[in-house]
Structures are given as structure tokens and as C-alpha cells.
Amino acid sequence: MNLNLNLQEGNDLAHYATKDAEGRLYHEPDQIYRTPFQRDRDRIIHSRAFRRLGYKTQVFVNSEGDNYRTRLTHSLEVSQIARSVATTLKLNRDLAETLALAHDLGHTPFGHAGQEQLHALMQGEGGFEHNRQALRIVSVLEDRYPLWEGLNLTRATLKGMMKHGEVYSCDRHLFDLCRERQQGFLSLEMTLVDRCDRIAYVHHDLEDGLDSGYLKFEALKEHPYWNEAMRACNEEYGEVFRTLRRPLQIRTIIRHLLNQCITDLIETSAGRLQKLSSNTTQDEMDAGSTEGLPTPENLIGNSTAMAESIRSIYEYLHENLYRHPDVIRMSRRGERMIELLFREFMARPTMLPRHVQKRIDRDGLHRVVSDYISGMTDRYAEKQFLYLTGG
Ligand code: MG
């Protein structure tokens, strides 16, 4: 049987796309039916940390409602957008998809409040930061292979996950890669995922915010970005739109906004990429990144006008949703649970599962407790909190 699997990723990739996966920290032979990046993507999807994202939320605590985004559905939405845009721009869609699926792996329970609380508790011990945590998850904490810790992802994927070019000081196995990442050129796929993340969460938070009632439709009408989209939907659907029930109007407007934003991202980026000379490869950009060549941040992005619209609607969300008294109250509740769990496990490390305790000698008690708590889902953290406080 001749399986023509068309694994030659180079066939439909532009010269500026990432092609080289750069091998893995532990050598593994290539597979004939999946490319290295496809295998990375599959390893992330099959990981326990990825499954736990289903019970972690960004804005609304998981127990608040079944229709709100969780970090899992958000990651899937970002990967869908990133894959579509990468395909259109002839970037490496498998790498983009992989980075999108992995981009929120390191988050704590209870959203940003959880992360900030854990960071405060880890002061003087290297702090806590979700990108660094994600690298630790995929290279140390996931326990699936007999011969190595972590998922043994490709070097190019690991570098793509080093958003701020940093790793924890206990993760010495990543130091060389981290140095390469700091000196080298960021992949275009990495920047693309970052842009898609922002586009996804801004619009989805608008939708979830309206569904939850924290954001008011009548008030949002005053915002030019929303107002303009309403006008366009009115024009497109006429009387049908005006007589739709409110939730369907909201979804129609959100879909219009997302389409418009993604189309703008594609067209703006394509226009800038076209100007790159046809022999500018990633390696050459890498070598010349200090000599005035365009950076990925300058190449992949929305038009100035659209970027400004996204910024202004983000500010609206910040003021009206993220700083809503009820949301602040939910966050405070999460912070207190994280704080209590941290102090309890620090005081009595023998309560940690035995396989977790085994890492204390190598990585230090603070880091191990931080790993354990940050890996918890909202509901598991809440259950542990209630248990330890006798509730
Ligand atoms: Mg995200």
C-alpha cells in the first residue's frame, strides 16, 4: 500500500515559515505518518494538564455556569483561529496549532487572581509565571514516558513557548534553549498565536460578559466598536436582525466582529510579509534581526485602526467586566483559597502525593508546592480548601 501522506511540510509553506523542528532534547526517531510538530500537538492534546484546562476559567469561576468559556475551550478556539490564519499566510499551521493549544497550560486555578497570588507567595523563590510554568509542565511534570520526564517536545516548540524568553532557575535542562531563544529571532507562528489569543479572548469575554449580565447590551451600544458592528448587522440582515431575540443578536454581532478582526489580521500581515524579499528565510532573519530587518511583531498583526479598536474594547472590558465588583469578589475568594493551600502544604509537605514529594530534593519545597497548587483545577482547589478548613 502506498500511503501518500504529503508530509513534506515545505510544500505549501512560505520561505519565512518555520520548517525545522530542531530535534528533541531526548532523541527519538521520526515517524512516517506524522511530522514532528504534529506529534507535539498530539502530545499536548493527550496530556493531563490539557484535560484539566476544562475545569479552569479565565474570568468566570468554573462553577458559575456551563456555557462560559473555560481555558480548554478558549485554547481550542485560539488554535482554530491560529490554524486558519497560518494556513492562509502559508506559515507552519501545525506549529501554530501546537503553540495555541499549549499557550494556557501553565495557568493556576481561579484565573489571573490565582496567578498573582501564587506569584506573591513565591517572592524570593523565583516567583510564578504561567508561561514558565507551561514549559515546566511539558518538560518535567507530565509523566507519560518511561525514559524521560515531560513530553519531550521539539526544540522549536519549546522555544515558541518561551514567550518572555525565561525559564525557572530549577529548569536547568532548558537553559541552553532559553539562551538560543533570547538571541534568536522569534518565530512568526509564535507572534501569530499571541495575536489570535488576544482576538479570541477579547471577543469571547464580550460574549460571556453579556451572557452573564455583567455587561449590559444597552450600555455597550455606546461603544463605537460595538455600535459599528450593530449597524453592519442591521444593514446585512435588516428586519430579521432587529426582531431576533437578544442572545442571537449578540452572537451575530460577535461573529461579525471576529470575522472582521481576523480578516484584517490576515490582510495586514499578508501585505507586510509580501514585502519580505523572497530569499529572506527564518535563518537569515535570525542572523540579521539586529540589523533593522522587520521583527515578527512588526510583520504579524492588525492594522493600526483595528489594533486601536481592540485596545479600546479591551479597556471597556477591563473597566466593566474584569473590575466588576462581583468578579473582584470571585477573584478574592480564589486568592484566599490559594493562599491557605500554599501555607498548609508548605507547613506539612507530607500531605503532598508521594510522587510529588520526590521532587522536593531537586527543585525545592516552594517550587514543588507551587507546581502542585498551580496544577489544580478550580473545583479541586475548592474541594481541598473546604476539606482542610473542615467545611
Ligand atoms: Mg489565552
Chart the SSEs and their pairings:
Blueprint: H1 36-45, H2 48-52, H3 71-88, H4 93-102, H5 111-121, H6 130-141, H7 155-161, H8 175-183, H9 188-212, H10 217-220, H11 224-237, H12 239-242, H13 246-274, H14 282-288, H15 296-299, H16 304-322, H17 325-347, H18 354-357, H19 360-363, H20 365-374, H21 378-388
Helix pairs in contact: 1-4, 3-4, 3-9, 4-9, 5-17, 7-8, 9-13, 9-16, 11-13, 17-20, 17-21
Give a verbal description of the structure.
Helices cover 61% and strands 0% of the residues. It is mostly helical. 44% of the residues are buried. Magnesium ion binds next to helix 3 and helix 9. The site of magnesium ion (MG) has 6 residues, from helix 3 and helix 9.
Nutshell version of this structure?
It contains 21 helices and no strands. By secondary structure, it is mainly α.
Please indicate the percent range of residues in DSSP E strands (runs of 2 or more).
Answer: under 5%
Average pLDDT level = 92
> Total strand count, please?
0
Radius of gyration, CA atoms, in whole angstroms:
22 Å
Order of helices and strands: HHHHHHHHHHHHHHHHHHHHH
Q: What small molecules accompany the polymer chains? A: magnesium ion
